[in-house]
Design goal:
This is Taurine import ATP-binding protein TauB. The protein is an alpha/beta fold. Helix content is 36%, strand content 22%. It has two domains: 172 residues, Rossmann fold (3-Layer(aba) Sandwich); 75 residues, no CATH class.
Length: 274
């Protein structure tokens, strides 16, 4: 298995000025001494779909939070589109989708999607037009006047995705967005997310505990292991696009799932869902 920081693919990408995300020698040690991330190296090209997978505590959320400038690294360098995470945050370079939909119960769906545009002072007409476009993109245009409590969990998460995309960020960070959903809903949303990814050309960084989900969605899978949190390896996923329900039944899909499972075992990461 290739090591993340010695992978020929990564070093090739490392010299690629077009990388939209560059993580070099990044460590995160919390004040209580927990080494949440140790010497992480990762280069992500524009338009990739990257999954971060690994057991609880391996630093997946920490890595996303570092990229999003919610926390600052103890050492190392992060660049987002050539900018520091702080500059990228101020330039609205990314949208963030959390595990729970975090919608405002007293606002209807349209008004939830418009919220970030209000905060950013977009003109009223444009707020509405953009929010309607985003709702159509996630297939919820007929639910614009509904309230969050009137929607299923999967629909609420689609609203969150529409909201994260409303201001047209280049990057989408998604922290286990489908973790709380049933398997069928999750598989449908996986397909929808891939369609959205193809149509918009966004770069997506997606945290998951599920091996099949990571294999199905990704162009590359970053396998992380705990104590200390680190990138164990990066596995390129060469399944053809566009992916379909049948993709999951191919031999190559099973081979890749096995490769991910072995990489997780190598780092003693057992707590993954099948
Ligand atoms: N603010 C904090 N202070 C101290 N330790 C923290 C803090 N945030 C995270 N940690 C620790 O850092 C390690 C990595 O946490 P992180 O949340 O990044 O893991 P994860 O891979 O996302 O886990 P999960 O799959 O459970 O969400 C864990 O040991 C966690 O307890």
């Amino acid at each position: 298995m290739m090591q993340a920081n010695t992978s020929p693919e990564l070093s090739a990408k490392g010299s690629n000025a077009a990388a939209i995300v560059s993580v070099q020698g990044v460590s995160m040690v919390f004040p209580n001494g927990t080494v949440a991330l140790k010497d992480a190296n990762l280069e992500i090209a524009q338009g990739e779909f990257i999954s971060l997978i690994g057991p609880s505590g391996c630093g997946k959320t920490t890595l996303l939070r570092l990229l999003a400038d919610l926390i600052q690294p103890s050492s190392g360098t992060i660049r987002i589109g050539g900018k520091s995470p702080e500059e990228a945050r101020k330039a609205r370079a990314y949208g963030y989708v959390f595990q729970a939909p975090t919608l405002m119960e007293w606002r209807n769906v349209l008004s939830n999607v418009m919220l970030p545009l209000e905060v950013m002072n977009f003109p009223v007409q444009e707020r509405r037009a953009r929010a309607e476009r985003m709702l159509a993109l996630v297939g919820l245009e007929k639910f614009a006047r509904h309230y969050p409590w009137q929607l299923s969990g999967g629909m609420q998460q689609r609203v969150s995705i529409a909201r994260a995309l409303a201001f047209d960020p280049q990057l989408l960070f998604m922290d286990e967005p489908f973790g709380a959903l049933d398997e069928i809903t999750r598989e449908n949303l996986n397909l929808e997310l891939l369609r959205l990814w193809r149509e918009t050309g966004k770069t997506i960084i997606f945290v998951t505990h599920s091996i099949p989900e990571a294999v199905f969605l990704s162009t590359r899978i970053v396998v992380m292991t705990p104590r200390p949190g680190k990138i164990e390896t990066v596995i390129p996923v060469d399944l053809p696009q566009p992916r379909t329900f049948e993709t999951r039944e191919t031999t190559r899909f099973f081979e890749l799932a096995t490769a991910v499972r072995e990489a997780l075992r190598k780092g003693h990461g057992y707590e993954v869902t099948e």
